[in-house]
Design goal:
mainly alpha, 5-amino-6-(5-phospho-D-ribitylamino)uracil phosphatase YigB
């Protein structure tokens, strides 16, 4: 899920989690 960029700590966490979950 790389169609958006983290804008803050929460967004960064969400981005990281989404990337980890959907990267598999």
């Amino acid at each position: 899920m790389r169609f958006y960029r983290p804008l803050g700590q929460i967004s960064a966490l969400t981005f990281d989690l989404d990337d980890t979950l959907y990267d598999n």
